Amino acid sequence: MSKQQFLFGIIMLTYLLIVFGGYVASSESGMGCGPDWPLCNGKVIPQLSGDTLIEFGHRVIGGVLFFMTVFLFVHIRKTSRSLQERKAANWMLLLLSIQLVMGAVVVFYHLPSVVITIHLLIAMIFMALLIWIWRYNRKRILLLQPSSIIHHLNTIIVLLFITIGLGAYIKHEEIGLACGWLECTDHSILPSTLAQYMQTGHRLFAVAAAAYIVFLAFRVFKTNHTALKQRMLLILGVVVVQIAVGIFTILSFLSLSMAVWHLAIGTLLFALMVEARMICRQ
């Protein structure tokens, strides 16, 4: 297996861990191992059933990711001559270490919403860093375009990051149904409570990100860079699917399957934007 294939495998495993973590939260299985960490219900391998099976499975995936990341870190430190890549490897290991501590805090303090949200956002940054290293090691695609394209991509990534974080907090605070799919109060789209303001804020960030992506797509389609055009076309398709899933998530009263799909597609959109940004690096 080549280094690039190994890196791609770690990215996919990180994506799986993020989505499976959403399933753990949405199925309310986060305390399936009780207040124990790193043990599960006081055992190395507990009785695997119900919530315990779900939470323990999440921890196993995290454990595999940890060892794969440490192996990658050692490999980069030994073989890479690039100072940038070595620094990225250092940050990669630091973020992973923080994630381990955050995972323990989540268990010890019985799933506080703020900590769970930070836990997710660190995982998103970790995945973005992996994508950077993966793309850095591939044949470079240099894009000779105005720096405004890069600025727009950076802004969209930040918007998506905020949208996902706010959505996660709303989910864990159980205020995801503070507003309907369109209206917040009877015959009005305007919020009136803190929960409704937060839900509306989440939607406004999502709408802003979607509109910005459409705007940028038109800008990109005027360029002669085929690779970026292809990526923006794919991203537009993912945006349409995410909007539809978001509406159905509300209409289904936050059903488990729709909530997980909402996170999965949102995370995919974030990853695709990061990768698109990477091919535009100067």
Structure notes:
This protein has 282 residues and is mostly helical. 73% of the residues lie in helices and 0% in strands. It has eight helices and no strands. Helix 4 runs antiparallel to helix 5 (147-172) and helix 5 (147-172) packs antiparallel against helix 8. It starts with a helix and ends with a helix. 31% of the residues are buried.
- Find the count of extended strands (DSSP E, 2+ residues): 0
Mean model confidence by pLDDT: 87
* Overall number of structural domains: 2
Q: Over all CA atoms, what is the radius of gyration?
A: 20 Å
How far the N terminus sits from the C terminus, by CA atoms, comes to 29 Å
Residue share in helix = over 70%
Low-confidence residue ranges: none
Q: What general outline do the C-alpha atoms trace?
A: flat
Strand content: under 5%
The assigned structural class equals: mainly alpha
Number of helices: 8
In N-to-C order, the SSE pattern is: HHHHHHHH
**Major sheet description:** none
